[in-house]
Amino acid sequence: MARNPNLNELGEFLKERRAEINPGDLGLPANKQPRRVRGLRREEVAHLAAVSTDYYTRLEQGRVHPSGRVLGALAGVLRLSEDQRAHLFRLAGTDALRRPHRRPRQKARPELLRLLDDLGTTPALVLGRRTDILAWNTQAAALLTDFGEIPVKHRNYVRLLFTDPAMRTLYQDWENIARTAVAQLRTEAARTPADPRLNTLVGELSTRDEHFRIWWAGHVVAGLCVRAKQLNHPVVGPLTLDWTTLISATDPDQHLVTWSAEPGSPADDALRLLASWSATSPGPPPSQADTAA
Predict the structure, then answer these.
(1) Cα–Cα distance for residue pair 291/286, rounded to 1 Å
(2) Right CATH for 110-288 from 3.30.450.180, 1.25.40.10, 3.40.630.30, 3.40.50.10540
(3) Which residue, 13, 58, 244, 289, has most beta carbons within 10 Å?
(4) 6-97 is classed CATH 1.10.260.40
């Protein structure tokens, strides 16, 4: 089969884009030795995109046909604009690798919103695609963070785990929680490898956090699960809560997530105290967010 002539142009396009990236902007350590090339080195791009240096070198040489996952990862690492990203996929040369049509804006289902309001002292939120936070109740805001103060485009659970310092102190076993979240995100990425928002999220977190970059490169996958989580809450202290995820029958891309405790347990008493505290403290009402797809 003849090689796609656009692959050479794709390689040149990647070279130019990596030359435009300032390594310091991606959190890469400064090197006392002067750089022989502008921008990022090949091995740095390969590492951030979770591919081998040899593979990326052959890609720039026009010798390999990249997958949609690789193209999406490179688009995130190189911080491509929407137009640049579309051009990258066009150069790959097949319909399967081009950016899909943007899906409709995702909103929390009405029945899930009603459940949020009816859960009383139970913290709960609705997660959509890519763990975007679509809605939450007052108790979830009191337990975790004031989601209403977070810009809609940044209202994502995995993103908060890695970018909000308070989340690292809230979870006693933050590393295990975050590692599992990355594995679950990797599972979703396998279903929608060309999702531009997911690839942008992965690219951003890969450049901002070494833990995320290493765990993402490990290709570990995980599904949703029920498990206990230990928290250190700044108001009510230590908590052991059960994290439960329910999938919407009308939209499997939406999950109702709850934190609950055994009735009569110290954690249950703490949740009731937290609910009482949040009811008498200034804070956000039960809310929903229009999260872009």
Answers:
(1) 16
(2) 3.30.450.180
(3) 289
(4) yes
